[in-house]
Every structure is written in C-alpha cells, then in structure tokens.
C-alpha cells in the first residue's frame, strides 16, 4: 500500500450515524486496529452543520461550519476528503453501526443486497436511524463499488436475551411479526466487556455486571457470564430510562389520552417522545446534562430533570441486580457516565444494601475504580469506544474472507 497522510495503509473506515450526527473514524488495519483520525459531523440538516476532525496522535480538534443537508451528503464530503488524505484505494473495508438488526442479525456481517432489503423491510422498527444508515451504506457503495462493507448491529449483543426478558405482554400474534424487546447500545456493551476482561480482576468479566451506558441515549444492561440477560431498552431506543430528548418508558394510555384531548396523531406523538421529552422536556431548558447541572441551584426545573434522571437510573440498578441475583461490578460509561461525577454519586446514593459504596475523591477525580477499597461491589469508570469495536469486528470479518 502507498504512503498516505496517515502513514501506510490499508485502512478500515467506521461509520456511526445518529439522528442528526455522523461519526467516522479511520483505523490502520492491524490487530488490534490503530485509530488514525476521527471526524464528527454534527447538526446534520441544519444550516450551521459542523465538521470536527481529531487526529489520533495530536488529539487536537479542528472544526469548521459547512452545509450538510443529510447523512449521504456528509458521507460524500467525507469520501472526498479521504480521497485527498489517503486515497480511497487504501481503504480496505468500511464498517457501519446499524442500530437495529431485527430477529435476523445476531453478529456483524458483510453487507449484501439481501441484507439491505431486510433492513428496508424492518425500517418501521426504527425510523429514527435505519433509513439514514441504509443511505450511508448506499452512498459508500456508489462512490466505491465493490468495496467490502460490514454492518455491526447494536441489537446483536442482546440477541439471545432469555425468552421471558424478550417477550412483550401483547397478543402473541405480534411476537411472530418480530415485535419483542431487542435492547440497544450493544456495540458499547461489547467494547466495555472486552475492556473489563482486560483491566478487571481475574474472573470479574464472568461475574454479575451492570453496564450503565449513560449519554444522550441512555440504557443499562445486566450481564451474567458474559451474556446479556436483561436491558432497559426494549423494542425501540425510545424505551427505558429518561434520556436527553427521549421520554423513556411511558404509560401507553398517554397516547390515547393525548389523541382524545389534543387530537395528537401518531407522527406528532413520535416526535414528542423522541425529540421533545426527557431532560429537555422536563427542564424546558436543555437536553444537555452539563447545562442542567450548572443551572440546578437556581432553576428548579433543571434540578427536577437531573433528579428524575438519577432516580430512574438508581431504580434500574436495583431492578437489574434483582435479575442477576446480586451484583459484583457496576460500570459507568457514555458521555454522562464518564464525565458527570455528581450524577454518578446520586445514582449510587443509598445503595449500600446492594454493596455499592463509592469513594467521593475517586469519583470526583474520575478514576478508573470509583468504589471504596472495602466496597463489596466494584464500581468502575470505563470510557466506551463504539468505533474501535466496529473496527475490531470488521478486522475479524476480513480475516474470515
């Protein structure tokens, strides 16, 4: 392979599309893959879209504003930039985060026409993510026909949930149509379990573990002997904990009530619970936990939103520990879990009955181990990295070709 701006190739490109963002990373194809550069397109669809590039060596971000009307446009801009920086011929494969794999996909797989047809079929499962993710795969295919592309599914980690955990209490005929609890943030969970195996005590990764992925999207997962046995998200990523803009679990009677009293239709309700609820809806100020923590002392709405988030997270820890029959390790991750020490402290407050006690100094400093030395439960902070997990999966798939 020819020398490039990021050294010799070949490279693996990872693509992680959110509802209004696009994260892309370039890795040298080694074992394990080596991060070279990361790029984030934020506020896609807005006039002030932002492209931020961070080198894997300097870690220094460089940003500029540009027009990115949709995810495919962002991908086209990125591929043009990569053509100049590394040459598209030096990219060996592209790995995509695909949020929903339905009942069919339980592991990363090479993209095929049949897979794209199945993803289009189940797009109603997740209209917030699947259509844009399909468009990203197609955009790469148009620019680089024949390039190896792989789909890495966020639901795969939870694919084999126990039947009782996956089953929805609705008429059985819908189960045959694929309506079940799926769980999400699986790429993050897989990465965290790899890291726990690496940094944890002997046998810790085989114990009773709760993974708390707390970011703009938030979920918790109970893991026993390395397998997901329960998780807070269900059929869609809207369910479970309150999140930045998503409501989390709601009484389904609210849908009928708003339809009768406000004439709210399905699309309007969908928009409300996915974009206008959660921290933003309760606070009426911001979906960003950093803003709310900064304002909670002077604005009761901010204080209430933070309290609600921590309350539901603490409740979820208790429920998941019950499914595990106890708890050995609690892992905090995601943007809030990694950076919001007050939130971690409040979630763990009054949890001594489960053996959870955190050291205030360690927590404030964001140390890798947050629990007290005499704590029965090891409380850890492990930064997640979905892009690295995608790159590892693609590297393994290439080795099987």
From TrEMBL:
It comes from Nitrospira japonica. GO terms for biological process: acetate metabolic process; acetyl-CoA biosynthetic process. It is an enzyme of class 2 (transferase). Its EC number is 2.7.2.1. ATP binds at residues 23, 213-217, 288-290, 335-339. Substrate binds at residue 97. The active site is at residue 154. Its main location: cytoplasm. InterPro entries: Ac/propionate_kinase, Aliphatic_acid_kin_short-chain, Aliphatic_acid_kinase_CS, ATPase_NBD. Homodimer. Pathway: Metabolic intermediate biosynthesis; acetyl-CoA biosynthesis; acetyl-CoA from acetate: step 1/2. NCBIfam families: ackA. PROSITE patterns: ACETATE_KINASE_1, ACETATE_KINASE_2. GO terms for cellular component: cytosol. Catalyzes the formation of acetyl phosphate from acetate and ATP. Can also catalyze the reverse reaction. The record marks 185, 246 as: Transition state stabilizer. It is found in: Cytoplasm. This is Acetate kinase. Belongs to the acetokinase family. Gene3D superfamilies: 3.30.420.40. Pfam families: Acetate_kinase. Mg(2+) binds at residues 16, 386. Keywords: ATP-binding, Cytoplasm, Kinase, Magnesium, Metal-binding, Nucleotide-binding, Transferase. Its cofactor is Mg(2+); Mn(2+). GO terms for molecular function: acetate kinase activity; ATP binding; magnesium ion binding.
């Amino acid at each position: 392979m020819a020398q490039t701006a990021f050294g010799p190739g070949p490279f693996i490109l990872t693509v992680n599309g959110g509802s209004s963002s696009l994260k892309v990373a370039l890795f040298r194809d080694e074992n394990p893959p080596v991060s070279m550069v990361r790029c984030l397109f934020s506020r896609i669809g807005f006039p002030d879209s932002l492209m931020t590039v961070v080198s894997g060596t300097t870690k220094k971000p460089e940003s500029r504003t540009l027009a990115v009307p949709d995810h495919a446009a962002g991908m086209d801009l990125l591929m043009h930039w990569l053509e100049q920086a590394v040459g598209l011929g030096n990219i060996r494969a592209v790995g995509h985060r695909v949020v929903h794999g339905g009942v069919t996909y339980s592991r990363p797989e090479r993209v095929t026409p049949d897979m794209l047809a199945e993803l289009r079929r189940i797009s109603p499962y997740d209209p917030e993510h699947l259509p844009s993710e399909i468009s990203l795969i197609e955009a790469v295919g148009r620019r680089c026909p024949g390039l190896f592309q792989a789909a890495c599914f966020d639901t795969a980690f939870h694919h084999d949930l126990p039947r009782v955990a996956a089953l929805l209490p609705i008429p059985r005929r819908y189960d045959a149509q694929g309506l079940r609890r799926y769980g999400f943030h699986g790429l993050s969970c897989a990465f965290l379990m790899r890291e726990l195996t690496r940094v944890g005590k002997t046998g810790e990764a085989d114990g009773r573990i709760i993974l708390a992925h707390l970011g703009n999207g938030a979920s918790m997962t109970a893991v026993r002997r390395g397998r997901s046995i329960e998780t807070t998200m269900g059929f869609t990523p809207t369910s479970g904990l309150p999140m930045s803009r998503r409501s989390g679990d709601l009484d389904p009677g609210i849908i009928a009530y708003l339809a009768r009293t406000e004439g709210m239709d399905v699309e309007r309700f969908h928009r409300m619970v996915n974009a206008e609820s959660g921290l933003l809806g309760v606070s009426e100020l911001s979906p960003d936990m950093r803003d709310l923590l900064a304002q909670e002392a002077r604005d009761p709405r901010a204080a209430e939103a933070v309290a609600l988030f921590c309350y539901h997270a603490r409740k979820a820890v208790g429920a998941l520990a019950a499914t595990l029959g106890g708890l050995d390790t609690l892992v905090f991750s995601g943007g809030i879990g990694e950076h919001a020490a007050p939130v971690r402290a409040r979630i763990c407050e009054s949890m001594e009955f489960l053996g959870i006690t955190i050291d205030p100094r360690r927590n404030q400093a964001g140390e890798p181990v947050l629990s007290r030395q005499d704590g029965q439960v090891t409380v850890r902070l492990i930064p997640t990295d979905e892009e690295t997990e995608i790159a590892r999966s693609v590297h393994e798939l290439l080795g099987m070709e």
